[in-house]
């Protein structure tokens, strides 16, 4: 469904229903989590307050090196994320697990420069504004827990999302504000 809507996702290469095997396209690249200095997959996430100033500067240097290798800026990555999520939501596909670990950029040697959304294991179809807002909120929380001081990055994602969604953004944006309030109340209460 996502692929038909123009969302960049790995293509299905092989299905063996009897054996329960699904073969997907190999993405020659790195996760956005890695490229933004969030560490490799499986590494524990570190709360922002646990970082020393020197650690933050070192992480920024490493992520800049990775982005230079991929010939892309942080802002361009955020724009790509916002556009891909908007295309997915326009097709009424809810990812269910939007994190920077589930987004990959092709390595430049592949000849492609696209951002690819992966891991649709929790995805479902819904036209509800609430579900789209919750999907965005999950990504916002993932940004804040994995990438220290990332508020401006997520704001850039939302700007690209808003441009791509057009009129639909107004209701989703309002609902995202409601979801944020509910999330804050829940974290304050326990």
UniProtKB/TrEMBL annotation:
<dbReference type="GO" id="GO:0005829">
    <property type="term" value="C:cytosol"/>
</dbReference>
<dbReference type="GO" id="GO:0005524">
    <property type="term" value="F:ATP binding"/>
</dbReference>
<dbReference type="GO" id="GO:0004674">
    <property type="term" value="F:protein serine/threonine kinase activity"/>
</dbReference>
<dbReference type="Pfam" id="PF02958">
    <property type="entry name" value="EcKL"/>
</dbReference>
<keyword id="KW-0808">Transferase</keyword>
<keyword id="KW-0547">Nucleotide-binding</keyword>
<dbReference type="InterPro" id="IPR004119">
    <property type="entry name" value="EcKL"/>
</dbReference>
<dbReference type="GO" id="GO:0005634">
    <property type="term" value="C:nucleus"/>
</dbReference>
<dbReference type="InterPro" id="IPR011009">
    <property type="entry name" value="Kinase-like_dom_sf"/>
</dbReference>
<dbReference type="GO" id="GO:0000408">
    <property type="term" value="C:EKC/KEOPS complex"/>
</dbReference>
<dbReference type="GO" id="GO:0070525">
    <property type="term" value="P:tRNA threonylcarbamoyladenosine metabolic process"/>
</dbReference>
<protein>
    <recommendedName>
        <fullName>non-specific serine/threonine protein kinase</fullName>
        <ecNumber>2.7.11.1</ecNumber>
    </recommendedName>
</protein>
<keyword id="KW-0067">ATP-binding</keyword>
<dbReference type="InterPro" id="IPR008266">
    <property type="entry name" value="Tyr_kinase_AS"/>
</dbReference>
<comment type="similarity">
    <text>Belongs to the protein kinase superfamily. BUD32 family.</text>
</comment>
<keyword id="KW-0418">Kinase</keyword>
């Amino acid at each position: 469904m996502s692929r038909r809507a123009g969302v960049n996702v790995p293509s299905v290469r092989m299905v063996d229903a009897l054996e329960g095997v699904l073969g997907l396209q190999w993405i020659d690249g790195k996760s956005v989590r890695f490229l933004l200095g969030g560490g490799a997959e499986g590494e524990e996430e570190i709360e922002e307050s646990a970082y020393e100033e020197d650690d933050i500067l070192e992480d920024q240097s490493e992520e800049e090196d990775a982005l230079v290798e991929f010939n892309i800026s942080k802002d361009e990555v955020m724009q790509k994320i916002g556009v891909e999520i908007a295309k997915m939501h326009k097709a009424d596909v809810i990812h269910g697990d939007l994190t920077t670990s589930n987004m990959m950029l092709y390595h430049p040697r592949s000849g492609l420069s696209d951002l690819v959304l992966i891991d649709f294991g929790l995805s479902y179809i819904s036209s509800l504004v609430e579900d789209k807002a919750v999907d965005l909120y999950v990504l916002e929380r993932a940004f804040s827990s994995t990438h220290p001081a990332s508020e401006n990055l997520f704001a850039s994602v939302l700007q690209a999302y808003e441009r791509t969604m057009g009129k639909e953004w107004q209701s989703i944006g309002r609902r995202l504000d409601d979801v944020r309030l509910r999330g804050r109340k829940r974290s304050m209460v326990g």
